[in-house]
Amino acid sequence: MGMKYFQRKLDVVSLNSATPLLKYEVVRKGILLKESKRRAEFESLALREYFDFRYYAEAYNKAMIEAIKKDLAQKAGDISGKPRDINDKIK
Question: What's the superkingdom here (predicted)?
Answer without folding.
Answer: Bacteria
